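## Example pair
The file below holds two records. Each record gives the amino-acid sequence first, followed by its C-alpha cell line.
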Amino acid sequence: MAWLLVILITAASLAGGVAIAYVTGAAAVLSFIAADQTRHLAILPQRVLSQLDVFTFLAMPLFILAGELMTRGGITRALIDLAMLIVGRLKGGLGHVNVATAIFLSSMSGSAVADAAAITSALVPEMERRGYKREYSSALTVASSVLGPLIPPSIVMIFYGALMNVSVAALFAGGVLPGLLLAGGLFAYNGWAARRYDHPGGRGAEMPPLLPTMFRSMPALTVPAILLAGIIFGVVTPTEAATLAVIAALAIGFVYSWLEPGATPASAIASLGRHLNGALERAAMLTGAIFVILFAAAIFGYLVAIEGLPDVVLHLVETAGLSGLEYMLLITVVFLLVGMVMDNTMALVLLVPLLVPAAIAGGADPVHVGVVTCLNLTIGLISPPVGGSLMVVSAMSGVPYLKLARAVLPFFAIEIAVLLVLVIFPEITLYLPRQAGLVP
C-alpha cells in the first residue's frame, strides 16, 4: 500500500507539471519510508554529496561553457561553410552539410539539444529556401543531433564514467567509430532521399569562397584536435581538455570578432566580453539544472544500494538463464523505452547502477556498455512522447510536433539499426580504445 501511494503521488506530480528533479527527490525520500529505511535518512545529505564530489564532473560545466562560447562566437557559421565546401556539391548537398555540421559541432559541445538548436537556426531556413521541405530538413536536424553525445566530448559519457568508475577517455575513444557509423547511415539515407524526392544540389550548387572559408574554419578545427588527441592519447585528462577548450573558444572568438569588417582590437574584446557574459550565464543555468537532477537521483541511488537491488537483478538474470548478449538486448529495449519518456541524464543516473552491473558481471565490457547505453538514451531525445530534440526543433522551425515526429521515423529506424549493430558487435566500439591502450 505504501509503494502504491508513492507511485500515485509521483504520477500526479509529474502530470501537474512539477519539475522532474523535485519529483524524483520527493519520491526517493518517500521510498525510504515505504521500504522501512528511515534510519538512513539522517546520513543522506552526506552520502549524496559524497556521490557528487567527483573530479570528473568538473569537466561538464567547462564543456558546456566551451560549447556556448563557440555557438556565440561565430564558430558554427564557419563550420557550416566548411561542410558546404566538402559535401555541398553532392545531390542533396545541404542535407549532407546538415549531418557534416553535426559531426563538427559534436566534437565541441557534447549536447544533442544544443546542437539541434544551433543547426536549426543556421540551416533549416536555408534548406527550405533552396527547395527542401521544412519537415524533412527539421527531421534530419533532429536525427543528426544524436551525434552530439556520441562523438567526444560527451556530457552523458562523463556522467556514466563517474557513476560506474569507467575511464572517460576510453568512453570518448569508444564513441568515435559508432558516431561515424551513425553519421554514415544518415548520409546514406539523405543521398537516397535526394534522388527519391529530387532535392536540390549538385555541381551547380552555390558554394562559399574557398580560401576565406578555409582560413576562417581552421581555428575552429583546432578545438576537436585538442580534445581528441589530448584525451585519447593520455596527454590531458577530460577536465584539463575541457579547460583548454574554453581557452581555445575564447581565443577563436576574439579572432573571429577581429576579422569582422571595421573591427578593432578594442571592439573585438568588447564583443568577446558580451559573448562571455551570455555564455557564463547560460552555462551556470544548465549546470545548476543538471546538478539538481543528479542530486535528486543520487538519493534514489542510495536506496538502491541499501536494498541491494543490483544483486537482485543479477540473480534474476542468472535464474532466467540469459546469456550476456541476450541480457544486453533486454536492457537495450528497457533503456530505449525509458529514454522515450524520461530525461536521459535522469534515466542514466537512476537505471545504470541498477541494470548495468549485471551486464558487466555477464562478461560485457564496461566501455562497450557505456557507449551503447549513452547512444540508447540519446535516441530517446528524437522519439515521442517527450523527445527533447524534437521539442526544440519543432519550436524553432515551426513544424508541428506530431508532424515532425512522423517525419523523423525513417531516421529513428536507421539509428535503432545502428544501435543493434553496436550491441551485437562490440569490437566496433572497443577498437579505438584498445589501439590507444585504454582497455585491455
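Second record, same layout:
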Amino acid sequence: MPPKIRGMTANFTSPKAPLRRFTLMLSGEDALDELESRDSPHKGLPHERFLLGELLPLAPILLLGQANQVVNPNEVIACLQPIHLHATRDHLILMGQNQIDLTPEESAELLQAALPFIEEDFQGSVLFYNQHYWFIPAGPFSSLASYSVDQAHGRNIDWWMPRDTQEEGIAKRWRKLQNEIQMLWHIGPVNEERGQRGMPSINSIWISGIGKLNDVQAPALLKQSQRLIGSHPILAGLSKLLSLPHEIHLDDKNLVGAFAWLDQPQAAWPQLSAALHSKQLDEVVIIDFLLGKVRERIFTAKDLNKKSWAFWKKAEPLTWKEISQS
C-alpha cells in the first residue's frame, strides 16, 4: 500500500458501534389534578397516547393485532365490549374485563342476541369479534368521544360516558342503544346461568377506541426499534402496522434494540440488570408517566447501585421498587 494511503488509514477513526439498548415502557395512570381541573376527561391513558398519538385510534389497532384480515386504513372503526356495571348507593362503577370471567362462548352468545340492534344502529356489519372485543365500522357514531375500559374501569361511569363532539345527539343515540341491549341481556340465558354460578352479570356494553389506522402517530422511538415485546394486543397491532417483529416473552436473545411493555416488569428487572453487568446491553431506557407526563430515564451498569456518601460500605443494588417509584 502506498505510504499516503497507509498514513490516511492510520489516522482514520472508525465510527462508534451503536449502543445496545433495551427500552421498557411502564403503564401510566391519569393525573388526578388533571381530572379535577377539566370539563371532560383527557382521552386515553398516558401510555395509550404515547403509543398511538392524541387521536388515539385504539379500535383499528386492536383489530389489526387480533384479526388475520386486511384493515382499511381510512375506515373509522369502533370497539364494543360486554361489561359489568357495579351499582353502589349513588352511582355505577365499571368493572375491568379481568374481573368478570367472561368466557368465549358467553361473549359469542351475547353478541348474537344483540347483533340485530347493533348492526341496525351502526348501519354496518361486525368486522371481527373474540372473547373481549367486538369491532364494527363506527358509521353514525364516528364523531363520538369515548374512553377505553382500561381508562374507565373502577370509576364512576357518569364521568366516562361517551360525549358529543361535532354533532349533538350522537351520545344520546348511543345511550339508547346501550339501554336496549342492557334490557335484552338482563332477561337472557347467559346472565341467568352466570347468576346461578354467583358470577357478576354482563349488564351493559361499552364503546371506545373510535378512529382509523391512518390516525396512528407512533413515536420515533417505536419505529426505530428492532422488535416489540409484550402480550397486549396494541403491540401486536403496532407490529403489523410498522412491519416489526412481535414477541410475547422476553429472553436473552431478543433484548438488543427491543421495545417492551410487559405485564410484570418487576419480574424482568433481574434479567435486564444482569444483561447490563455482562455488557450484553449498554443501556436500559425506562419510560414511565410521572403525573401523566412522559419521563425517560437511562440506566447503565454503573447506575445499578445505590449512591452513598459512605464510600467504605459495600454498594447495594437498586431494587425495582426504588427504580419504579423514584
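Notes on the second record: DSSP finds twelve helices and eleven strands in the chain. Confidence is low (pLDDT under 50) at residues 1-10.
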